[in-house]
């Protein structure tokens, strides 16, 4: 599964990329929100991991753009940040994030959260395929 990672911190970006490749994910990295948005528009990413604080376009704005895009299929979004106050978590989730992981992240926690995201994306794909098959059947009647 292809994952877009957006983080302006080069150390975090390399660490995420290393773990994702180790876990057999295809990883595309962006160093800021604007680059991530350009990549998202050009390719299909079922999962996005983005930092909150980035230059040009921050995490919550990137998430809102993704949620309002006309791409088919659900995108599971994990907001990764050093912010950990309850208000921050609420704000991040209200921007459209599916999950929230605090930095420094625990790699085992991130892995299980990614697996949950993968299950959700796969379920949505199966549902969409079933709906399309049903619609084709109805159109043939």
From TrEMBL:
Signal peptide: none annotated. Residues 113-140 form a coiled coil. Residues 2-118 form the Response regulatory domain. The modification 4-aspartylphosphate is found at residue 51. GO terms for molecular function: phosphorelay response regulator activity; transcription cis-regulatory region binding. CDD domains: REC_OmpR (cd17574). Keywords: Coiled coil, DNA-binding, Phosphoprotein, Transcription, Transcription regulation, Two-component regulatory system. GO terms for cellular component: cytosol; protein-DNA complex. InterPro entries: CheY-like_superfamily, Sig_transdc_resp-reg_receiver, WalR-like. The keyword Phosphoprotein applies. GO terms for biological process: regulation of DNA-templated transcription. PANTHER family: REGULATOR OF RPOS, TWO-COMPONENT RESPONSE REGULATOR ORR33. This is Transcriptional regulatory protein SrrA.
């Amino acid at each position: 599964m292809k994952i877009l990672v957006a983080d302006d911190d080069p150390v975090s970006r390399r660490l995420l990329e290393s773990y994702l490749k180790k876990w057999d994910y295809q990883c595309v990295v962006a160093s800021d929100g604007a680059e991530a948005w350009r990549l998202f528009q050009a390719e299909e990413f079922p999962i996005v991991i983005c930092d909150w604080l980035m230059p040009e376009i921050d995490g919550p704005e990137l998430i809102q753009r993704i949620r309002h895009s006309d791409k088919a299929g659900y995108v599971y979004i994990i907001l990764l940040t050093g912010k950990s106050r309850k208000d921050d978590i609420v704000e991040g989730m209200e921007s459209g994030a599916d999950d929230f992981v605090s930095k420094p992240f625990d790699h085992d926690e991130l892995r299980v959260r990614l697996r949950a995201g993968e299950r959700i994306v796969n379920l949505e794909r199966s549902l969409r395929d079933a709906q399309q098959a049903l619609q084709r059947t109805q159109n043939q009647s």
